[in-house]
Amino acid sequence: MTLLIEKKPEAAAGFRPLRPEFRRGFAPLAGAAVLLTLLVALAEPAASWQGGWAETRDRTHAAAVLLGIPLALAAGCWQGGRERRCRTGDLLRTSVRGALPRFLASAVPVALWVAVGHLVAAGCALLATWYCATGDSPYLVVPLTDTLLLFAAALGGQAVGRVVPWRLTAPVLATCGYVVLGFLSYDHRNTYAGLSPLIDTSVTKLTVWWQPWVSVLWVGGLAATAVLALTARRRAVALVPLALATAAAITLVEADELTRPNPVARRQVCDTSTTPQVCVNKRYEELLPQITEALSGLTGRLEGVDNLPVRFEDRAGRSRPDEARLPMVTPLGRSVVRGKLTDPELYAWEAGMSLVGRGECDTTDDAVARTDRAVEHYLAPSPMEKYFDDLAAKGTEADRAKLKARQQARARLLGMAQDERREWLSEYFATADVCDPSGVPTL
Amino acid sequence: MTGTVLYARSRALPQTVLALAATALLAVWAAHALDSYLDPERRVPVVALAPLLAAAAIGASLYSASDELDRTAVRPWWHRRLAHLLCLTALAAALLPLAVLSSAQTFGPPAMVRNVLGCTGLTAGAAVLLGARLSWLPVFCYVSAMYMGISGVRGTALPAWAWLLEPGTGSGAWATAVLLFALGGGAYMVKGARGTP
C-alpha cells in the first residue's frame, strides 16, 4: 500500500507567480536601462558636482526627474501592453484573482526594478562624492523621494499602456513627459512650476521639508487614480487618491515659498593664524587647509603689514568694509575638481587681486596702475604674467617702455629692506581702494 | 492588390508616414514656440527629440506580424527591407529640417539630418537585437543621457559619441552618425527584425 504524503506548502508560495516576473522578461531590462541612462547622464559632467553634497543632490534630482520619470513612464507603458501583444488578455481574465492583483503582478516588478535602477545610480553618485567630499553632509531624502516618484511613474505608465493600444504609446508618452516636465521646470516663475518635482533650488538653498513628500503624494496620487480607475472593483475608490493628489497639487501651487536658505551656507570656518585670516564657507570646510596652503606665500608676505582687511570671507552677499572676498570655489569643476584646488598659483593671484581693489574706479593713474601691478607681482604673480611680459617685449616701442617701467617698479619693491617694505605696504594698503591718485604711494 | 501594397499595409507604412508628418509639424511648432530664431541653442530640444520620435516611428514600422512565415519565403527580403528603411529615413530627413531652416551653422538642417540618420541607425540595430516593437528603448536612453550630460562638455570640441548634440557640421559627428546608420541599417537589411510577440 502506498501512502501519499501531503506536501506542505512552502512559506513563499504566494510569491511564486511574481518570481519569474522579477527575474526574467522586461523588468530587469527596464531597471538596467534606467541605471545606465542615469549613470551616463551623471558621469559626463561629474566634475561639476562630485565633492559637493548639495551639487550632488541637485544633479541626481534633476536627472531623476527630467530623465528618470519619462523613462519610467515608457517602461511601465511598454509592460502594460504586454498582454495585448501576447494575446493573453482573455486567458488572464479567466483567472481566479481580481483585476487589481493581476495588474500589480505585472506592474510592480517593472516599477520596483526601475526604482532599484534609480537607487543604485543615486547611490553611485553619493559614493562618488563621499570619497572627495569638501564639507556639509549628504541629503538623503531627495534620492529616496525620487525613487518613490519613479515607482509611481512606472505604475501610471502601465495603466496608460493597458488602455491605449498603439505601437508608439510608450515613446510618445515619454516624450510628453519630457515636454511637460521641461515646460514646468524651464520657467520657475510659471504659476504651475511647483507641480514639477524639480523646483528652483540653488546649492545655497533647501526645499521646505514637506515639498518632496507632497510631490510624491501628487505624482503617486495620480498614478494610484489611474490604476484604481482601471482595475478596482468599485471605480469610485479611485476618487480617494484623486482627492489626495488634488490637495497636494493645490498645496504646491499655492505655497508662498518652496525653498529656504541652507543654514550651513551662511556659516564659515576660519584659520585665524594668518594675516589676513582665511575663512571658507562651511559647505566647503574640508578645503580650508588646501586654501590656507595655497595662500601661505601671500599671507606670509603680509605678516606685520597694517591696514589690511581682517579676513578673506566666503559668504553670500557683499563683503563687509574690513573684509576681502575669497576667490570663488564654485561652481565646482573649475577652481576645485573632486575636492582639490586645480591651480593654487592662480587661486593665490585671485586672492591677491581682491586685496588690490581699484576695480571700481573709472580711471586709474599710470603710476598708480604700475604700483598696483608691482604689489600684485610681489604678493602672488599671475601665472600669465610671463606670457604678457614676453608679448610686450616683442611689441611696439611704447609697449617695451611700459614693460621696463613695470619691471623697475617690481624691482624697487623687492629691493626694499623688510621693515621699509612693511611700512610702505601699510601705507599702500591704507589707500588700496582710493580712486584719487594724489594720496597713493607709488613706485 | 500588388505585393508592394500588401507589404506597405502589413508594415503599417501609411500610419508611419502620418506619424512622421505629425512629428515634423510638432517640431515646426516647438521651434517656433521656443523662439529659436533668437538663439539657435534653444533648438536643442527640437534637434534631439524630433529625430528620436521619427526613429521610434520608423523602428515600430519594422515589425512584422508574420515574421516566421515571412522567413520561409523563396524571394530574398533584403531589398525590401533596404527600400523600406531608406524611404522612411529619406522622408524623415526631408521633413524634419523644415523646423530649423533659419540658421544652418548652429543646430540647423545639417544637424537635424545627421541626427535622423544616427537615431534611425540605432533603432534599426535595436530592432535586430530586441525586436522592432522595443527598438525605441536604446535610442531613447541614449538621447536622454546625452541631452542632460552634454551640458558639461558644451563649448568644447565634442567627442564622437556625443554626435547628437554637435551644433555645427563637425565631420566626426557626421562620420559617427553615418557609421551608425550603415551598421544598424546593414544589420536590419541582412537579418531583419527579431521576431517578438
UniProtKB/TrEMBL annotation, chain A:
Keywords for this protein: Membrane, Transmembrane, Transmembrane helix
Please tell me the species this chain comes from: Streptomyces fuscus
Is Transmembrane found in the keyword set? yes
UniProt name for this protein: ABC transporter permease
TM segment ranges: 25-43, 63-81, 102-131, 137-156, 168-186, 206-229, 236-253
TrEMBL record, chain B:
Q: Which residues cross the membrane?
A: 43-62, 82-100, 112-132, 139-165, 171-190
Q: Which domain of life does this protein belong to?
A: Bacteria
User: Keywords for this entry?
Assistant: Membrane, Transmembrane, Transmembrane helix
Asked whether the UniProt record includes Membrane among its keywords, one would answer yes
Q: What is this protein called?
A: ABC transporter
Source organism (scientific name): Streptomyces fuscus
The root-end lineage is: Bacteria, Bacillati, Actinomycetota, Actinomycetes, Kitasatosporales
